Amino acid sequence: xxxxxxxxxxxxxxxxxxxTASSQRERESLEVRVxxxxxxxxxxxxxxxxxxxxxxxxxxxxxxxxxxxxxxxGDSESLRAGIVAGNSSExxxxxxxxxxxxxxxxxxxxxxxxxxxVVTLVKSVLFHRRNPLHFHLIADAIAKQILATLFQTWxxxxxxxxxYDADELKSEVSWIPNKHYSGxxxxxxxxxxKTLPSNLERVIVLDTDITFATxxxxxxxxxxxxxxxxxxxxxxxxxxxxxxxxxxxxxxWPALGRGYNTGVILLLLDKLRKMKWxxxxxxxxxxxxxxxxxxxxxxxxxxxxxxxxxxxxxxxLPCFWNVQLSDHTRSEQCYRxxxxxxxxxxxxxxxxxxxxxxxxxxxxxxxxxxxxDGNLLRRELFGCPSEADVNSENLQKQLSELDEDDLCYEFxxxxxxxxxxxxxxxHYEYEPASDxxxxxxxxQLSMDRLQMLEAICKHWEGPISLALYLSDAEAQQFLRxxxxxxxxxxxxxxxxxxxxxxxxxxxxxxxxxxxxxxISTPYMFLSDIDFLPxxxxxxxxxxxxxxxxxxxxxKALIVPAFETLRYRLSFPKSKxxxxxxxxxxxxxxxxxxxxxxxxxxxxxxxxxxATTPYRVEWEADFEPYVVVRKDCPEYDRRFxxxxxxxxxxxxxxDAQEYEFTVLPNAYxxxxxxxxxxxxxxxxxxxQYRICLKTLKEEFQQDMSRHYGFAxxxxxTAENNS
Length: 721
Known about the structure:
alpha/beta
């Protein structure tokens, strides 16, 4: 299926080698052209409203309304005339859309790939829209989890989302054999009259592989042109599929002429219900399946069979409302210029690889939204009151309580920043082991650590939960990287959760919390992306969890950390081999040269000869890597970038009376890399260090308030260190 992603114009992002500088310039110029066309339309609308305000009374002039610039046809003869003459807009009785009228959009979405596609579609709609939007998403459990989190963290004003359980609808359509790649979900548009609220009168229905090149209000305005018993707005199919001449013995479902494509549908729900649509399509499907045996194009075959019997149901939309880039398409007859384009439909299984003489242009338009910074779409609709959003109101309240003159304001603000989050960016499939000993490796990373993924997957065969801090464009680069990696594509037990870039700090603890929250195992190994676990650590930890009764005790199992300064390392296969390398100076205990206190309490001297787990006590600045139950406390979000992010978490585990136990036959090795941007800021920026010290003191005070007398030792330890 198609793919999505985005680009932050506020930051300089690396570009994929696949796209040349000229391609980048094309996309940029395309975006400029789209905006120019948008401005031209705005001027035309203004001129039109002035003309109508001077004209006869029946040409209602109302400056609080937006006028659709497109005149539909309603019959194929005038459609063909429109193609010949070009898609020129008529200026007679223009249908209107109220300025703040809510536009309803329904989309069927199931699975991981479709969830990515929906984001690109929604971006294209949001980019052009001037009206409030209400999305009705018919989603399976996977898509609902992903999209609910995405929209909750996106926080776009004047956008409402409702979900409908696609799995509950399966029984309504599962009796229809379907050969189309969309599977059972490709039939669910047939039951929208039953699924959507009974008081919803009209809705635009879209496939996930759609890209908008204009304001969706123009399409919504076409509802005003429906007459008589017209209840379906559809574009004629732009291939010869329903003509039955594509190959020998090709036998399509019955259709009116070329038939209609159901990638874009206008549904008059109230009239359809009165016409008993449910009964109408079921009877038609049952009759045709007796001879056809199955559908080839899912719901589209059944819609066309109904229309063949009842042609009066259709209002035929101009073909630029669904420019179909399928195989054998006639879509080139639908446009003469970029300004003619309204909706592009990637309805070939090949998606972006489809053959079309203008496919580069269409692909660039798609990539513009794919890589567009979604944060820029959080703009208010001026003059249209938004529904009260509790999360948004709480955020504004928290931010208003901060002092903008505080030199540490940006640090404090980051704690409350809501980062747009796309869970399970790639396919994920994993059932935890039934013995309740399963452990997930948890880590976070940015684009510059991507090269560590394959190595970690080779060292750790168990489930992994990763939070990636990326721009929209980087997320697309990651997608291409992952899909090109045999190692990563062979693993379905790695959850990739994209947290989109915003602000000037690396929100390390937010990323850790996101990765921790979305594990499906009872235990987790809290690691960092620069570490390679020893071979066999996954199975060793599962045995340790049982032996040390982690299920019924508050323990944090410590995996001793080492490091190498060599980029090429013959990884030790055993503890004995590691000790030998330690003696030779090939390996060191982690941060031995620069931050001994961080891991000194692990007691490496004792570990060298230990054969059984041993307990160690908390000390100031201790920050080991640990295995804990999934119900352990989250990381404190006030710590961003470099400094104290793990130390504070270990301190809180100690305050909650976790027992620190060192595993005698476990180890992990830190691999060398260039210094991170945040550690460079810490070293070079005095104010950064001052703010970090302030945040540390405030955290310790909070600990004292929360845990009482027992937490005073943290203040004392800090003063003595």
